[in-house]
Amino acid sequence: MLKMFIESLKNLVSEPETIKYPFAPSPEPKGYRGTIHYNEELCIFCDKCENICPPGAIKFVVVDYETGKKEYNYNPYLCIYCGACVRECPKAEEGCLVQVETRTPPLGRSVPKGKELGYFINRIEDPKEVESKWREIEELNIKTKEEYKAYKKAKRAQKAAAKAKSEE
Ligand code: SF4
Ligand code: SF4
């Protein structure tokens, strides 16, 4: 009886177990596989995350052919939260790619911002632009990668020619 009384008192002063949905958003459960966060400082630009991503939600654009520096572009509206990119990333344990426990809100009047989301979404001002701007990123991804490949090939040829000349 006393136990029941204490339990009732505890319930009277504790927070309710229920949520006020639809007036308050329903929280994601512990361990929820949500949005992908990225840390450029730890990235080695190996492209493994891009290559494994089923819907193509990660696209790198090469911005410096000399150093091989690339910009990470992530489209959270294409992401299916499968986590494959994180599993594939050789630097994930250090925190280069992390799957957080919150999802990206549906495309509304604004888009989420933050360094951890990469370049693409941070450059979007109007949510209506997401689709068309993503197509531009996809084109740039192909174009700059082809150019980078050609650049590296030309550099190798230059090096080989210089070596051959020095051995004459
Ligand atoms: S979680 Fe899956 S869909 Fe999302 S970016 Fe990573 S690999 Fe792509
Ligand atoms: S797999 Fe990891 S290290 Fe490689 S490019 Fe992607 S984020 Fe960078």
TrEMBL record:
<keyword id="KW-0411">Iron-sulfur</keyword>
<dbReference type="GO" id="GO:0016651">
    <property type="term" value="F:oxidoreductase activity, acting on NAD(P)H"/>
</dbReference>
<dbReference type="GO" id="GO:0051539">
    <property type="term" value="F:4 iron, 4 sulfur cluster binding"/>
</dbReference>
<protein>
    <submittedName>
        <fullName>4Fe-4S dicluster domain-containing protein</fullName>
    </submittedName>
</protein>
<dbReference type="InterPro" id="IPR017896">
    <property type="entry name" value="4Fe4S_Fe-S-bd"/>
</dbReference>
<dbReference type="InterPro" id="IPR010226">
    <property type="entry name" value="NADH_quinone_OxRdtase_chainI"/>
</dbReference>
<feature type="domain" description="4Fe-4S ferredoxin-type">
    <location>
        <begin position="34"/>
        <end position="63"/>
    </location>
</feature>
<keyword id="KW-0004">4Fe-4S</keyword>
<feature type="domain" description="4Fe-4S ferredoxin-type">
    <location>
        <begin position="70"/>
        <end position="103"/>
    </location>
</feature>
<dbReference type="InterPro" id="IPR017900">
    <property type="entry name" value="4Fe4S_Fe_S_CS"/>
</dbReference>
<keyword id="KW-0479">Metal-binding</keyword>
<dbReference type="GO" id="GO:0016020">
    <property type="term" value="C:membrane"/>
</dbReference>
<dbReference type="Pfam" id="PF12838">
    <property type="entry name" value="Fer4_7"/>
</dbReference>
<dbReference type="GO" id="GO:0046872">
    <property type="term" value="F:metal ion binding"/>
</dbReference>
<keyword id="KW-0408">Iron</keyword>
<keyword id="KW-0677">Repeat</keyword>
